[in-house]
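Treating backbone geometry as a discrete language has practical consequences that deserve illustration. Part of our work consisted of pairing the sequence of a single chain with a tokenised description of its backbone. We regard such an encoding as a compact summary of how the chain folds. The amino acid sequence and the backbone structure tokens for this protein are reproduced below.
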Amino acid sequence: MKWPIRQVAELINANIEGDETLELHTISKIEEGHEGSLSFLANMKYESFIYQTAASAVIVSNDFVPKHHISATLLRVDDPYAAFTMLMQAVSQLQNQNNTKSGIDAQAFVHPSAKVGEDVFVGPFAYIGAEAVVEKGAKIFPFVYIGEKVQVGKNSVIHPQVSIYHECIVGNDCIIHAGAVIGSDGFGFAPKEDGTFQKIPQLGNVVLEDEVEVGANATLDRATLGSTLVKKGAKIDNLVQLAHNVEIGENTVIAAQAGIAGSTKLGKYVMIGGQVGIVGHLNIADQTKIDAQSGVNRSIKKQGQAFRGSPIQPFRQQLKSEVLFRKLEELNKRIAQLEQLHNNKD
């Protein structure tokens, strides 16, 4: 596949600085560029690569001023990362046009009472249970388990070995990656007098609204009552754990290995870094940012704040604390010296 650079420039609203007759045929990282490839420079930590890249063209910011000669043709835009993302979406759509799988494989099982819409693909060894509904254009890949009364919306993609337990709901245009488990029991056990535990039935479900993406091997527990809810546009990375009755707001993103305990509610546009732990029954305000490996032990009521550390502190305050912590050994020695000096005077 070849793309004239003028066509690319039109798509991402770029100004061409260099050879306007170029034809591009692939996309590459800037440090791995080669003839015919298109790359981008959004993070200036990678600026050194633009002076040595073999990529034929590079997307850069309108305000980028080169320090040395650049052999590549430049495509200047307001936001290189957004432009590159738009380009990759266009390439992905072209690839998907060539991936028009549909139909139910002979080795799949679809219960007679299940409803499967037009242009649905169901791969070999997939299982669709009683009264389940799979809507138009959805793709169910091999070894997927879809339980009783599950609903899968239009054009959603369920990758291999995903398990969706009974009565859970997946909206339109969702993507669930391999090995994810949607709707397993929440962690509910009541202690008994003899020291053992009585299992508390988990009678709710999990609801994913439209355009939600769930990463590989993520686990989303069903609610005790009601729904564990992931709202429209939220993105959940690999190996994330959402406990029972958690709510994730619209367009919130959660990075890998984060864990959120039961009944905690995250607002809209929240950003959760990798390996963050959040205790239960909290409310996290819209547009909150939590840095990686932080521990959240209290609710956050004010919107738009950034936090870091375990337990969390405001981001800049925590950075100052970390600087002081690194100096503790030196300060301890100085205190010991002062005490020794004081003792000698006595």
In short: The chain is about 15% helix and 30% strand. Residues 58 and 111 are 52 Å apart (CA to CA). The radius of gyration is 26 Å. The chain has a mean pLDDT of 94.
